[in-house]
Design brief:
Strand content: under 5%
Radius of gyration: 18 Å
Shape: globular
Oligomer: single chain
Order of helices and strands: HHHHHH
Structural class: mainly alpha
Largest sheet: none
Helix content: 55-70%
């Protein structure tokens, strides 16, 4: 069974199984983020990298990135909750969410996470986090989305997802070409 088949069987399967797997997905995601943060700090120390933007300059750059990323993530979680789902791919909303930031970018929650990681990297003055670990995390996320999540979404939502995918960019926001047609909570 492929990962796409596995995700599809979970997302279209019993509510009980989705609810049971949601904390597992959450732990894996948080664990991955912690690996990025602590791996970056260990890399900085092991390689002897100098601080990135030492002093208050790191805070001036990092704090707005972190704040913006957290706000986008909170908005996305709220939209998913209103659509009766979670941001964890095992327990998504039953309808395609195209409202709010999803009208501008297909993966605004991940875009928010990327902004948070860059913000934390600047706040911690971590060269490895800003220039190595976060870019690798972005690349791994893009590969996972292309190979697993997007094919599963296309299988579940058919042409409505295919059209959404053509209209809306993956990570970098762009003004909507056409108003969303899916679930529009909020």
């Amino acid at each position: 069974m492929s990962l796409v088949d596995l995700f599809y069987s979970v997302t279209t399967g019993s509510k009980r199984r989705r609810v049971l797997l949601t904390p597992v997905g959450f732990v894996v995601f948080i664990g991955t983020l912690l690996l990025v943060v602590f791996g970056s700090l260990l890399t900085d120390r092991a390689v002897g990298l100098p601080p990135l933007l030492p002093g208050a300059l790191g805070s001036v750059v990092g704090a707005p990135l972190l704040a913006a990323g957290l706000m986008v993530c909170a908005w996305c979680v709220t939209l998913f909750g209103r659509a009766r789902g979670t941001p964890i791919p095992f327990n998504p909303p039953p309808a395609l969410v195209e409202a709010g930031p999803y009208a501008w970018v297909r993966n605004p929650m991940l875009t928010g996470v990327f902004a948070c990681l860059f913000g934390i990297g600047f706040l911690l003055h971590s060269v490895a986090m800003v220039f190595v670990w976060t870019p690798v995390f972005i690349l791994a996320s893009a590969i996972e989305l292309k190979l697993v999540e997007e094919p599963e979404l296309e299988r579940r939502f058919g042409t409505s997802y295919s059209e959404y995918r053509k209209r809306v960019p993956m990570f970098v926001p762009r003004a909507p070409r056409e108003s969303g047609k899916g679930a529009s909570p909020g």
